[in-house]
Amino acid sequence: MFVKNSHIILAFIYFALLVLSSPIKDNSNKALKSSQAEEEEVTLSAIEISDNEEIIEDSGVEILSDIEEESQAAISNDDLIKSEIIKEIEVTNKIQEIDNGFRFSKIEGNYGLDEFIKSNGITSDADLIEFLKENQLISESANITLEDPGFACSSFLVHKRDEDGFYFGRNFDWIHSKGMILLTYPENGYSSISTVNLSFIKDNNNSLTEEELKNLSVYVPVDGVNEKGLTVSANMVGYIYVDNDTPKPDITASVAIRLLLDKAATVEEAINILKEYDMYQSLNLYIHFAITDAEGNAVVVEYINNEMTYVHSPINENFFLTPGDYYGNYVFIFSEDNIETLPLPQDRYNIIKERLEKYPTMTREQVRDTLSASSQEGTSWSIVYDKDNKEAYYYFYLDYEHGYHVKL
């Protein structure tokens, strides 16, 4: 299916305004490095920030060995949010809505993922809706569409400061998005915390029940962490026309996130699962995935010319990291013969990189403050995922003094 040019132009204008209006500090606005230097940078392995780290190879996935603790400079008062109030959320099967419109709920049992795996997959969001209807997860009369407002996000992995393990920080940057935090406990898979952008879901006849909304939300997460410490985050890198045609089963980007959260314990397992599928993009958005695990492995998975690639990097933003023609760019793919690339500013990437260099290990509060420093005017939510304790801290609409805590 070809993306309409007018839709692309309008979406890009909005995206560009969002990026350019970001309240990012001027001293982080550095000139882009030469393409050769940039391509060398993308080989950053998981948490490859200080010279004291040792990286070992294992089946093509870099694994972080013991990190030598190094003293860190005292944090200046300007670096820290002065205080925060954290509200504990006891998540139940009923959807709870907090004051700012965000929702929390959980779902247990069989929600059809194993049936999806047995099928030949799906190539579009419309196929996903039909699958849910066929498996009686939403009603036949439901009139649901998934519509794209686009999004611009960033994420990073960092070693904890005073204990073993890792934090994963994630900003979801698109203005006025409403989210649902969904805890899933499948019969045959790993439990997880995931975030769903409810603004993507259009219930055209207002017919979805609460249970049906949860069933649909299972299949359209934008990020999450599972009980094994695997995190997955989707970041937008353009708009796309895809034409895969191989004997592999098909999958869309949003369903792929659910599949990884339920079935993968490590980065290596996640890569192997993705290799089994032809990837189709959800909402016509060009997506790449930041995937990290409890051992500190971190990769960004991308799809170029219908081929899957991945690079080792603890940081992900909204430009391609794979060395080559797409590197550093936001990409519009109208057809195989009509591809346009647009270089993007790397301000948020550079802010995160500089903070990781300054603080190669961080407290949860420092992760929060790094998310704040790299946020934009349109940041709808920021998350600190604690991989080891199976919990997440959410901050909504740039309010970093009030957070919400959920735990598996």
Quickly describe the structure:
With 408 residues, this protein is an alpha+beta fold. The protein has helices at 5-20, 35-41, 113-118, 125-134, 210-218, 253-263, 267-274, 347-358, 364-373; strands at residues 55-58, 61-64, 85-88, 96-97, 103-109, 144-146, 152-160, 166-173, 179-186, 192-197, 201-203, 221-226, 231-239, 250-252, 278-280, 285-292, 298-304, 307-312, 315-316, 329-335, 338-343, 361-362, 379-386, 391-396, 402-407. Mean pLDDT is 80; it is low at 1-77.
Describe the structure.
The chain has 408 residues and is an alpha+beta fold. The model is unreliable at 1-77 (pLDDT under 50). Strand 20 (329-335) and strand 21 form a beta hairpin. Helices cover 22% and strands 34% of the residues. The chain has helices at residues 5-20, 35-41, 113-118, 125-134, 210-218, 253-263, 267-274, 347-358, 364-373, and strands at residues 55-58, 61-64, 85-88, 96-97, 103-109, 144-146, 152-160, 166-173, 179-186, 192-197, 201-203, 221-226, 231-239, 250-252, 278-280, 285-292, 298-304, 307-312, 315-316, 329-335, 338-343, 361-362, 379-386, 391-396, 402-407. The longest helix is centred in the first third of the chain and has 16 residues, at 5-20. The chain is globular and about 50 Å long. It starts with a helix and ends with a strand. Helix 6 crosses helix 7 (267-274). The strands form 5 sheets. Strands 4, 5, 9, 10, 12, 13, 16, 17, 18, 20 and 21 form an 11-stranded mixed β-sheet that branches. Strands 3, 7, 8, 19, 22, 23, 24 and 25 form an 8-stranded mixed β-sheet that branches. The chain has 9 helices and 25 strands.
